[in-house]
Design goal:
Chain lengths: 109, 893
């Protein structure tokens, strides 16, 4: 599938979403990711935006998801939990390095 | 806590759109968000809007797209298990949709008789609606064919009694020069002129326009130029602009036409331009445009209001601003010229509204009633499908038994009905297309903007919408009842002889009630219109219309310069005609009854000089009263001796005489035009009977008749000829006589008085005809509906009836039972229909004449009619029931 071996370029929201998934550990489902984005990075995004981002990341192989057994307290519906894949970590790392290289020699005015 | 539940519709939509686990998560999260919002004080509406915003947000749609394409990619071909699961989930995938559509088409093909019946019913209903809507669209909805047409207004002057008048030339000029809200102001007069040269002389419709007329409409001439400001003054070089149509028809679209001369009313005019194609206002379609020709006298008299005013509002001003500003201006003019302008104001209406005029109401009424017909058609089709669904119950049961989900079955039914609806729509479109010419012909040129009526984009959209709506409506009933009952029941009950289920009977009953109610409403409307129309045709007009021929003659001023010449012409014409064997008598009048209003303000003399009264003003020849059979009630008729050299005389009609000279005889009194000196007054020599002049509906207006010979005669007169036989046969005679007197003089609009009368009632007749047609269709569909339901009920109850008969019931008992069962529903329908009729009557009240909207006689007659037809529709199934042989029906089990 992959056209190039270069790490995937990440958008701003993608980076933040992946970091939120990473921070949440085994509690990273859609609603929690949205909460984390709001609480930590002060980004308010809509429900569907978070899901779109997660689905896209998953399609690119940067996160993966698993479904839990139906939760008895939630009317028998399962949840989908996300975690960052190795490829995802690679892309995150590449993004961070790109950023720090760009910051070198830049002094905030 | 009800407010904490998210709105259902968008949530269901989302549930439908999103597949799999994401669906539940997103919906749960949105519900959570929604509750938070409510807790923080968001209103119901705010929450609702917020939720819809979330559902329709681009990211949501993106999510739907991503997940759906992802599912398709992950799957090559559905295995049986996967397919069944999908069915069980009832979700819409492309494959399953195609499959369902195919299945629907197959089901339609399987029962051609049913399909044909449904298509015809729906085609009829949709066709009627499409045809009427295309007329409404062309006449009422489409903008006028001018750039920024919404900024065009018609302006009229309004007197202190709030009556509308045209502009007087000086007031118009002031408006044009001094207003601050209009880009353009223009004035025009509609008339007809005699075009000579190239074959027989012909009377052609013409517009006299001020300069700036074409610029105002935004359509400059396609060839040549428009009129200059100085050309609008009398005595300037005579010029003319030809209409595009006249240029093509008369001059073969000659590109070198500019600079040529045409003879109009005896004046040679230079062609300076060709107007843009399709340039017309309302139903008047002028062939030539000439400058308005203001004389110095015109420009000095502020009290003569005869110009039609048009304006184009500046883009930064609205119509209200324009009104306000112009009225402020008129208030200032009232101070400046108190005797002519005191108390006057201006009225501005959108040009489109003024062009549509009175056509709007009947058209909207027709659209409403064709909508009712469509509803009845839908009820009938729903009933048919309901009956058919009974037969398919086993099919549905089998399908759910092997894993077909309820939603899948419902979806297939929906597709079936959508396909039927669309088929009906295509049929309707075709029939509307075929019926269109006939429909427009019904209006007899009385419909403004009839040339704009076509089946175009908006009409197609309307038909598509109607078809889809019909599909949805007709699929509702089978959906409500079908496909989710428990399977064993369906298997058990679908055998012959099963009892009728209450819920199903109730749905059918509802259809019968609705059909009866809707047909009753339509028939009540028809009845009221019929009643009103019959009264209209029986109205006492005050003159006899039979065997009366009329025609217009316009004497060109170039050749008939003195009043004596003109009056001599008409006198000789009438005398020559009367010598003809078939002519009983002949006369002429300035304005024929039932065509136009032409009124002046008059007053008495001496102490009555300040008493003004407005009256219809008619110039007539002595033979007019005799020819029209208008009786002279007091005094004498006009005579040939009442000529320019004799003392001035006038005849009042009864209404005017009793209004101006109450309790005394008007004969011998004196009257005059308002504001003229007493020496120019006339003696009232007679009182004539009242005649309806303006329309059949309007009471006879106060009318004053003056001898044509004593005044500068209007150059345009209409002759009236009473024949001893069919008047049409005299048309050639009239033409010959006129040609023998003046070969260059055309007689236009030769027609009978009855035709003029009939034309004046066109909209009444069209409304009656079409509503009557809709009413008939409604009654037939309704009767078929009742018949169908009762037949079905009887067939379902065969066993029960057999038992009744076996235990001693007689055929009359059974007959009575079935008829009563049906008539109970009909009774309910009539009750609802009568309630609906109140609304029908109210919406018709504006077009009714002499009939109250809730006329008890009409209502009683219609209820009687509907009851009779319903009885017949119930009777035949009941008779079949009464003939049930108990032995046979019981053996069937």
């Amino acid at each position: 599938m992959a056209m190039s071996t270069k790490p995937t370029h990440l958008g701003d929201l993608q980076q933040l979403t992946m970091l939120a998934v990473a921070r949440l550990g085994d509690q990273a489902f859609g609603g929690a990711v949205r909460g984390e984005l709001l609480n930590v990075s002060d980004r308010e995004v809509s429900v569907s935006t978070v899901h779109v981002t997660l689905v896209r990341l998953e399609d690119q192989g940067l996160v993966r998801s698993r479904r839990t057994e139906p939760d008895p307290t939630r009317g028998g519906k399962g949840k989908r939990y996300f975690e960052v894949t190795a490829k995802g970590w690679e892309a995150l790392e590449a993004s961070r390095q790109a950023q720090s290289r760009m910051w070198e020699g830049v002094e905030p005015a | 806590m009800k407010g904490k539940i998210p709105p259902r519709v968008p949530e269901q939509l989302l549930r439908y759109l999103l597949p799999g686990p994401h669906r539940d998560e997103v919906i749960d999260e949105l519900a959570h968000e929604y509750r938070m919002g409510v807790e923080q004080g968001r209103t119901r509406l705010g929450g609702w809007l917020w939720y819809w915003g979330q559902v329709l947000a681009p990211d949501t749609l993106r999510l739907v797209y991503l997940l759906r394409t992802r599912r398709r990619k992950s799957r090559t071909r559905p295995g049986p298990r996967q397919y069944r699961m999908e069915q069980a989930e009832g979700r819409m995938s492309v494959e399953s949709v195609v499959q369902d559509a195919r299945y629907a088409l197959r089901a339609i093909r399987r029962s051609p008789g049913f399909t044909l019946l449904v298509l015809l019913t729906l085609g009829l209903g949709i066709g009627a609606n499409t045809a009427i809507f295309s007329v409404v669209n062309g006449v009422v909805l489409k903008p006028l064919p001018f750039p920024d047409a919404d900024r065009l207004i018609r302006i009229s002057e309004v007197d202190p009694d709030l009556r509308d008048w045209g502009f007087s030339p000086p007031n118009f000029v002031d408006l044009r020069e001094e207003n601050t809200v209009l880009d353009h102001a223009a004035a025009y007069l509609s008339t007809s002129l005699t075009l000579t040269g190239g074959g027989t002389p012909e009377q052609v419709p013409a517009f006299l326009v001020s300069s700036g007329f074409f610029e105002l409409l935004g359509l400059p001439p396609v060839l040549g130029r428009s009129f200059f400001r100085e050309e609008e003054l009398a005595g300037s070089v005579p010029v003319v602009i030809l209409s595009h149509g006249a240029w093509q028809r008369r001059f073969g679209a000659d590109p070198n036409i500019l600079g040529n001369l045409v003879l109009l009313n005896g004046v040679a005019r230079t062609i300076v331009g060709i107007s843009a194609p399709g340039l017309r206002l309302g139903s008047s379609d002028p062939e030539v445009w000439i400058p308005i020709g203001f004389s110095e006298r015109d420009l000095a008299l502020r009290g003569r209001h005869f110009l039609q005013g048009l304006g184009r509002i500046r883009s930064d001003a609205g119509i209200d601003v324009a009104r306000e500003s112009m009225n402020a201006m008129w208030a200032r003019m009232g101070d400046e010229y108190p005797e002519t302008n005191g108390g006057w104001s201006v009225r501005a209406t959108p040009l489109l509204d003024s062009v549509i005029g009175t056509a709007r109401t009947p058209l909207l009424l027709l659209l409403g009633s064709s909508g009712l017909v469509l509803l009845i058609a839908c009820a009938n089709v729903a009933n048919l499908t309901l009956a058919r669904a009974e037969g398919r119950e086993r099919e549905f049961a089998i399908r759910s038994a092997i894993g077909g989900s309820r939603s899948r079955v419902l979806r297939q039914q929906l597709f079936e009905h959508l396909a039927l609806g669309l088929g009906g729509g295509i049929l309707g479109l075709a029939s509307a297309h075929l019926a269109m010419d006939g429909l427009l012909a019904l209006f007899q040129d009385q419909l403004p903007r009839a040339d704009q009526v076509t089946i175009d984009g908006p009409v197609l959209l309307f038909t598509l919408g109607a078809s889809i709506l019909v599909g949805l409506l007709t699929s509702l009933a089978p959906m409500m009842k079908g496909s989710w009952r428990d399977l064993s029941g369906a298997f058990r009950e679908s055998g012959p002889g099963g009892g009728i289920r209450v819920s199903r009977g109730r749905i059918r009953g509802t259809f019968v009630i609705a059909e009866v109610a809707l047909s009753l409403m339509l028939v009540v409307g028809t009845g009221l219109l019929l009643n009103s129309f019959m009264r209209l045709t029986r109205v006492e007009l005050g003159f006899r219309t039979e065997n009366l021929l009329t025609g217009k003659i316009s004497l060109p001023q170039a050749r008939y310069q003195t009043p004596e010449e003109a009056s001599l012409f008409f006198q000789t014409l009438c005398e020559t005609l009367e010598r003809h064997g078939e002519v009983r008598s002949a006369g002429a009048v300035g304005v024929l009854p039932m065509t136009l209003s032409y009124s002046h303000d008059f007053s008495g003399v001496g102490e009555l000089a300040n008493e003004e009264w407005s009256a219809q003003d008619r110039l007539v020849t002595p033979g007019y009263f005799r020819t029209m059979s208008i009786p002279i009630l007091a005094g004498r008729e006009l005579e040939a001796t009442d000529d320019a050299n004799a003392p001035g005389v006038a005849i009042l009609n009864e209404t005017l005489a009793s209004r101006v000279f109450p309790n005394e005889s008007a004969v011998g009194k004196r009257v005059k035009l308002l504001g003229f000196p007493d020496e120019e007054s006339w003696e009232v020599v007679g009182v004539a009977g009242n005649t309806r002049l303006l329309s059949v509906r309007e009471d006879p207006p106060p009318t004053l008749y003056r001898p044509h010979s004593q005044f500068r005669p209007s150059s345009l007169m209409s002759i009236v000829v009473r024949a001893s036989g069919p008047p049409e046969e005299l048309a050639a005679t009239v033409r010959e006589v006129v040609a023998s007197m003046d070969p260059e003089l055309p007689v236009s609009r030769i027609t009978t008085m009855e035709a003029i009368l009939s034309e004046s009632m066109t909209s009444d007749r069209v409304l009656l005809l079409l509503l009557g047609l809709f009413g008939c269709v409604a009654v037939v569909l309704g009767a078929v509906g009742i018949f169908g339901v009762m037949s079905y009920t009887v067939s379902q109850r065969t066993r029960e009836i057999g038992v009744r008969m076996a235990v001693g019931g007689t055929p009359p008992d059974v007959l009575r039972m079935v008829v009563i069962q049906g008539m109970k529903l009909v009774g309910l329908g009539i009750g609802f229909g009568l309630l609906g009729s109140i609304a029908v009557g109210r919406s018709l009240s504006g077009v009714l004449f002499g009939v109250r909207p809730n006329d008890p006689m009409t209502l009683a007659a219609v209820v009687g009619l509907i009851t009779l037809i319903s009885l017949a529709a119930c009777f035949f199934p009941a008779r079949r029931a009464a003939r049930v042989d108990p032995a046979v029906s019981l053996r069937e089990d």
